[in-house]
């Protein structure tokens, strides 16, 4: 677990580009510390002991780790099986994640999986139905053997190329849209209101939405949170 937390970083930055894509620590952070970005202040605070965050967030680190394993299993699965079951393991519980978390079936859809595959984008969704209710959207990080992942890591420069599209643009344009459609198409399960910034269960209980990832996956997780918009765009609606 210590090693897992040593490599658990959130997002990327131009300053820490080389370190971030390799999963290394940066900004003076050592192997026993984490950096937390305060959304109210818009910047990182001083490094804090990882053990404090680990008590409440170790499950997300395990999810980010599992995304790599699930992606490898997905890559080795027959195409026919992929189309029949876009989720890599059905509704089974990932190793090291408590069994109250359940895998979403059919998300991403087979059509979206086909659009994501050439870019190397891979994600999965877990939901906890017990209290506190929560949905986690988990993105795979850099696979050093996949060129599209390196292209996505270099998007700070390639994004100026006309017509350029990578995992970030697909996340903002397609993943966020289908995720919203999934929530809105199940009124017997979820309540999505343009006037409520919290997603709710049909019972009225709030459901927290989080996005998770390591390395490149952390950048995609942040991008997903920033670009997840309701329809119309001026609506408040649930936030990640």
Short description:
The chain is of the alpha+beta class.
Q: Describe it for me?
A:
This protein is α+β, with helices and mostly antiparallel strands and 240 residues long. The chain has one domain. It is 38% helix and 15% strand. It has nine helices and ten strands. It has helices at 2-6, 17-21, 50-75, 79-84, 110-116, 147-153, 155-158, 167-184, 216-227; strands at 33-34, 37-38, 43-44, 48-49, 101-103, 123-128, 134-139, 190-191, 199-201, 206-213. It has a six-stranded mixed beta sheet. The chain has a two-stranded antiparallel ribbon with strand order 1-4. Strands 2-3 form a two-stranded antiparallel sheet. The radius of gyration is 17 Å and the shape is globular. The protein starts with a helix and ends in a 13-residue tail after the last helix.
Q: Mind sketching the topology for me?
A:
Layout: H1 2-6, H2 17-21, E1 33-34, E2 37-38, E3 43-44, E4 48-49, H3 50-75, H4 79-84, E5 101-103, H5 110-116, E6 123-128, E7 134-139, H6 147-153, H7 155-158, H8 167-184, E8 190-191, E9 199-201, E10 206-213, H9 216-227
Parallel strand pairs: 7-10
Antiparallel strand pairs: 1-4, 2-3, 5-6, 6-7, 8-9, 9-10
Helix pairs in contact: 8-9
The largest β sheet comes out as: 6 strands, mixed
Note the run of SSEs as H and E: HHEEEEHHEHEEHHHEEEH
Could you say how many structural domains there are in total?
1
Task: Report the portion of residues in β strands.
Answer: 15-25%
Mean pLDDT reading: 78
Strand neighbour order, sheet with most strands? 5-6-7-10-9-8
What is the radius of gyration computed over CA atoms, rounded to a whole number of angstroms? 17 Å
Shape: globular
Please give the alpha-carbon distance between the first and last residues.
Answer: 26 Å
- The total of beta strands comes to 10
| Helix amount | 25-40%
Count of individual helical segments: 9
Helix and strand content put the structural class at alpha+beta
Low-confidence stretches: 1-25, 80-91
């Amino acid at each position: 677990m210590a090693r897992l937390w040593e490599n658990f970083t959130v997002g990327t930055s131009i300053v820490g580009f080389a370190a971030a894509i390799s999963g290394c620590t940066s900004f003076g952070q050592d192997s026993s510390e984490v950096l937390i970005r305060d959304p109210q202040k818009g910047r990182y605070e001083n490094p804090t002991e990882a053990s404090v965050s680990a008590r409440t967030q170790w499950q997300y680190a395990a999810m980010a780790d599992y995304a790599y394993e699930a992606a490898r299993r997905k890559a080795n699965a027959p195409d026919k099986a992929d189309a029949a079951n876009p989720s890599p393991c059905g509704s089974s519980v990932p190793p090291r994640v408590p069994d109250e978390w359940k895998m979403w079936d059919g998300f991403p859809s087979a059509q979206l999986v086909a659009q994501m595959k050439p870019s190397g984008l891979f994600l999965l969704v877990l939901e906890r139905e017990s209290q506190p209710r929560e949905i986690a959207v988990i993105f795979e990080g850099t696979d050093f053997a996949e060129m599209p992942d390196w292209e996505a890591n270099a998007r700070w420069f390639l994004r100026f190329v006309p017509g350029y599209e990578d995992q970030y643009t697909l996340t903002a344009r397609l993943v966020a849209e289908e995720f919203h459609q999934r929530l809105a198409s199940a009124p017997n399960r979820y309540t999505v209101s343009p006037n409520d910034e919290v997603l709710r269960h049909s019972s009225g209980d709030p459901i927290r939405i989080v996005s998770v990832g390591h390395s490149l996956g952390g950048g995609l997780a942040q991008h997903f949170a920033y670009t997840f918009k309701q329809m119309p765009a001026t609506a408040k609606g649930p936030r990640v």
